[in-house]
Amino acid sequence: MTARQIPTSSLPRDLLDQLIRLLKRRGVDYADVRYEHLLHESLVAEQGRVASISLSESSGICIRVLVNGSWGVAATPHLARASLTRAAASAIELAKASSLINRLPRPLSPVQPVKASHRSRFAIDPFDVPLGKKIDYLLWANTTLMGPNAIKRATTHMDFHKRRKLFCSTDGAAIDQLIIESGAGLEVVAQQGDETQVRSAPNSHHGALSQAGFEYVKQLDLVGEAGKAQEEVLALLRAPSPSAGETTLILHPTQVVMQLHESCGHPVELDRALGQELSYAGGSFMTPEHLGQLRYGSQHVNIVADATIPGGVGSFGFDDEGVPAQCVDIVKEGLFVGYLSSRESAARLNLPGSGGAMRADGWSVAPLVRMTNVNLQPGNATLDELLHGVKHGYLLSTNKSWSIDDRRLNFQFSTEIGWEITDGRIGGVVKNPLYTGITPQFWGKCTGVGRKEDWQLWGVPNCAKGEPMQLMHVGHGSSYARFDGVTVAPAR
User: Fold this and answer.
1) Residue 2 falls within a domain, yes or no?
2) What's the predicted TM-score (pTM) here?
3) Range of 265's domain?
4) Residue 457: CB partners within 8 Å, gap ≥ 6?
5) Cα 276 from Cα 270, distance rounded (Å)
6) pLDDT tens track for 46-80
7) 192, 216, 238 - which closes a domain
């Protein structure tokens, strides 16, 4: 048996059942037990050579209990009965100790416990693909990036994840899930004199990731993207900067990803909105009194958190509380209407049920309210229709850097590349474009969203939250989006 396989016969179903029976005997108000087995393979090539190959494997059990209105959590990689008994006792003791300080009740919204299984869709298990085949493809794309003297660094990479989960609760849930993710990307850095530029493909911040098999990596066409990225990074060295001032922006789907993530995804995490998550990246301006009242954007802005969409790395069958995946309206025709929530946070707001957004990035940590796939729903406009009437503006693609305040209001983003728009036509490349705004004012300036045919779903593998910090895989989908009257300037 190799490390690349997860043997079904060895999954500790009986141990989880025994733990649930033990926790019931100990008189907890509620408990759930989650087993995870994780595989991660990473391959990186730089400057025409293999830079690193790694294969990591991890497994263990997390026990979460609710006693006297307080939570206790303990985890262990050791599956011997004695180790699990000690972990269960630790979780109960922590909950009891917390209850001496916490006097607030912790009601949970109802969920129908189910016995179910879920498998993500994939055609080719990436862990069955020969290592040599992956390396050959990675090096082919890498050498395609190289050539001209101005190219100073060429990097290509692949990542594959396989996650097997078992979840049981004292409510009677018993859920088995298998999720496979595949991704790849590239980055090229060029320098001429004091000028340095970078281009990433198919997206920045570690490329693209999808809940799919190795077939997704082949669809990304890294070799074709490498030639385009090399051409664009060299053009950026000679390109002018954008003019400062208010203008029209059309954001490429690669940039709408980061705009959604930072100015919508994080502020609608209900633990932030309730003030429970402040120590990492702050809170939210979208607090409960604004639900159903706040004009977040224009009538063109429809945003959902969809954990059911195929291919999204924020998709699943059930979250880490056993709540079924669902599609939740966040912003509807510009109005703020919904949250990313858990059973506890939903109960605090008297919502009818959890939004199914409670997720942990591994077996050793407790779940948090996390983004699923936070998507801007498509409109009806073609790109030509969005360009129509733009006397002067910019089309911006691929996030480069960002800054946003701890309430998710004031922001600035810079992108790797932009193109000038003149009289409704896309013109030459501009370098170092930067735009700023205030979240509801910015989305209120949205005057059009692209059609379904141009809609793209992207995976973000490194969304950080919590202490200790957890890195979650989340998804974002969008088409092109137009915004009028946005402040643009050259990044310094």
Assistant:
1) no
2) 0.96
3) 245-490
4) 210, 309, 311, 312, 373, 375, 475, 476, 477
5) 9
6) 999 999 999 999 999 999 999 999 999 999 999 99
7) 238
